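Consider the following assembly input.
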Amino acid sequence: MHLVLERRTEQSRTIALVSPLIAIGLTLVTMSILVAILGTNPISALGVYFIDPLTDGYSLQEIAVKATPLVMIAIGLSLCYLANAWNIGAEGQFLIGAVAGSWLAVKTHGTDAGPWVLPAMLLLGAAGGALYSLIPAICKVRFAASEILTSLMLVYVADLVLDYLVRGPWRDPAGFNFPTTAAFDPVATVPVLIEAGRLHLGAVIALVVVAAGMVLLGKTIKGFEIRVVGAAPRAARFGGFNSNQLVLLTFAISGALAGLAGIIEVAGPVGNLRPGISPGYGFTAIIVAFLGRLNPVGILIAGLFLALTFIGGEQAQIAMKIPLDVTKVFQGILLFYVLACDSLILYRFRLIFASPKVSRGAA
Amino acid sequence: MPDSTPAVPHGDPKPLLQTIGLTKRYGDFLANDRIDLDVWPRQIHALLGENGAGKSTLVKAIYGLIQPSDGEMRWQGDTMVLSGPSEARSRGIGMVFQHFSLFDNLTVAENVALGLDGSESFKDMSARLEEVSRVYGLPLDPRREVWQLSVGERQRIEIVRALMQNPKFLILDEPTAVLTPQEADQLFTVLDRLKAEGRAILYISHKLEEVKRLCDTATILRLGKKVSTCNPRKETAASLARLMVGGEIKEVKVAANRKTTVPRLVVNDLSLEPGDPHGVRLQHISFELKGGEILGIAGVAGNGQDELFAALSGEWLAPDPGMIVIDGIAAGQLSITRRRQLGAAFVPEERLGHGTAPRMKLSENALLTGHAASNMVQHGFVKTAAMLKTVDRATEAFDVRKANRDPEAASLSGGNLQKFIVGREILRNPAVLVVSQPTWGVDAGAAAVIRQALLDLAAGGAAVLVTSQDLDELAEITDRIAVMFHGHLSEPVATQGASREKLGLLMGGSSLEQEEPAHASGA
């Protein structure tokens, strides 16, 4: 008896939906073992991680706040990945977007600039992220440089640019030498949706992005081009689709969305520009994109789930002294299982009972 | 039904190789269903069948590449269970594959050494290689790198590599598919000699005339089952074809009074550097193709046909716009989309991954080439209903068999997918159709449908360009034939009256390149 992996004639739609759930299940089992090794009761740890945040209003809002950048970035990344363009640098595009938009907030700080400031900041943020993402895209198209490496390395450049600005030219003079800009003026701040809450307009924008992603991929010729160029590059060329142009386009869109998420984050929940504005949203969004099957609705659900792990991780650290790094381990294991389970969409396991030995005697 | 009393010229008590009830299952699919086969020494045994009949599966089992699910193999009368190809080789079973496994950047000798067990020194091996190739009349220079060699020479490497292990039993998978008629004749001489030495040969083919000429016995497979074992010399090509297909094959009908009109596709002195380093440079290609006419391009694979297709389709742009003229418009630098809008349509050789995106639905694959000039796209939005309608029309017009209305392209059989692709293009009512290997790997029924469709399209006034390695196919449907060799295209000749010998010589490059080096002109 042996186990073989057999190619399916057609992709299994059921497995495409179930595979992320299998991956989550396997991740939970692995995490339980890990938590048990750390000396904590796995059942109560999982409760703190995944159940407790869902039981009070503050945490629910906080999940939505964390999910907002994750979903926006992941929608953009999904376009890249569908087009076989590997943008790993959304974290850097997020930071540059935050920097580009913050420039206007810093320049108009203390003036009587009108309500045009916030929309202009959002545009600047998106433009900054898009331009920044075009660096690796152009290097790929023009010089065949691996976009995986260049986009990733530009994350660290962005990080240092931000660091320099808030420690140098943009530092708040009245800020006791802390490396931050001054708190943004009200006209430069993303409004909250609920009085005294944390949920802000960005969550609505994220939903609009999800809807736009659905329309783009499902209903437009551009979306079709993106999918074909990734799924069958030669057929895409035969169809007359320009893969280089699509690499630039998908990188620009994903950079713009990451930049938009960045400026919304600093003009919203954070309130000013400072180091450490992202707990790795740009990287976690990669997991969100794949857990969501590169599908906009799937990404929305996956974004909420990954946000839950951030909130749960914080609570587990406070309540059970589980290190926050365990959350990152969790996210990494999850991505591993998601990619592994994806092979079940194209392949299936089959148990072979009969051994291939001779079964007839002399005839 | 032919009787199973083959004319076997043997005095041996036992078959060299025997399969008894050999069965191979893939999931629920029976690729081989209880196949009995006897191959004797001193026999050239043909294995006949359409694509998908189970020929490859059977020989893979005999060569140890796959394990049978059921049944028995016997070697010289004793039960044989193979752990892999190396065990098969050590027993004396050799195989020459249809698709070569050679490293382009290594020399002939290095490639052969990689296929052997390495028990002798490279120098001894090289000497033996030269000896074997000389003795059997398969001339090879061990020091040449493979990328410089013709397809026929590459096949010689594979044959010599197999012969160097002194096999008792040699399997050849469609060996003449890539050869000119003259090269095929040379191969047959070698095979007759191997037979005279007492070896057995299992010869896979679907070319009936050559099987009749070469083979002593033929076993015919259909849909995984053995339908007959017979003496091919006592059969006619038609009776063998009936056994293979399981019915009569529809003859294609050529419209009697087809008129040619104005030139619709003109190529003027097209020269083009290849995109990849081992590609073929197109050199001074010129021809004129009128409406109502079918022009065939013959030639051994790898002589620039792929490059010519890319240049005509616009996947690779010509250096000058006037080099390619579609319906009077200089199109050499237009994109494939613009050329489609001018009324051109293209069917590439590779169905999966080039002509279609394998894991996308048929409707999406209709959009792939239909987006340029149809009602499938409006203001950037796709119209699913129009895409599905194209699928339905192609399905009906070309009898495409599929599991549901809109399955993934990869789930269709080769013949049905090819019918869909050809149908997709013909339904656009093209002015010019460029089609590469239209019936490659397609069952006989589908091939007849496709050939008829090409004839009907030309009868309707379109210009059709067909590239094929199958001379019989070109003879059946074309008006004129030109031959491609080393990036040159010969002057087209009228199909009626063009002899196979002459075309074969052109395919070997004889009248085109006088300075052809001596090694390639054969033994």
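The two ends of chain A are 26 Å apart (CA to CA). Ask yourself how this observation constrains the way the partners meet.
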